[in-house]
Amino acid sequence: MIALLKQLFQSQTQALSPQEQERQLNLAAASMLLEVVYADETLSESEAELLPQLLVSTLGILAGEAEQVLVEAKRTQRNATSLYEFTAEINRIYSIGQKQQLLLAMWRLAYADGRLCQYEDQIIRRTADLLYLKHSELIRMRNLAKEQTD
């Protein structure tokens, strides 16, 4: 049964156009960023300003696209049942460097309001595990984010 579900998922993924695959990948990454934003149940002004900027710099999309991706990602993120839904697609396509950049963006969002909430920290650490990043990479990205925030 599980093998059948995997085969069905893979056939649907392969049937997508490159543009549609990129759109889904951007939605997955944006949803991961939203997980951090909503972890402490408040959207600070600094997080709201930083989020579209991070989408542009991390995903390489245009500023106008960032707002559209955010709207769609909010819908996707609300309906998600686990982080795995997002990280599976990211693992399939992203390089280690791209995963690190996504993790850095997550840390930057977590520190945007001047304090790190325990729930933000937990989500980022869980994401790093799901993205198969080493603990040293997690710490390095956190330290980079703290330096960029200071």
Question: Could you list some keywords that capture this structure?
Answer:
mainly alpha
Describe what you observe in this structure.
By secondary structure, this protein is mostly helical. Helix content is 81%, strand content 0%. It is built from 8 helices and no strands. The chain has helices at 2-14, 18-39, 45-59, 63-79, 84-93, 96-111, 118-130, 135-149. The N and C termini lie far apart (51 Å). The relative contact order is 0.14. The model has no long low-confidence stretch (mean pLDDT 86).
What is the secondary structure topology, with strand pairs?
Elements: H1 2-14, H2 18-39, H3 45-59, H4 63-79, H5 84-93, H6 96-111, H7 118-130, H8 135-149
Main pleated-sheet profile: none
Count of DSSP E strands? 0
Q: Distance between the terminal alpha carbons, to the nearest Å? A: 51 Å
Q: Specify Rg, calculated over alpha carbons.
A: 15 Å
Fraction of residues in β-strands: under 5%
Helix-strand makeup class: mainly alpha
Mean pLDDT across the residues is 86
- Total helices: the number is 8
* Secondary-structure element series: HHHHHHHH
Low-confidence stretches: none
Task: State the helical fraction.
Answer: over 70%
Short summary of the structure?
The chain is mainly alpha-helical.
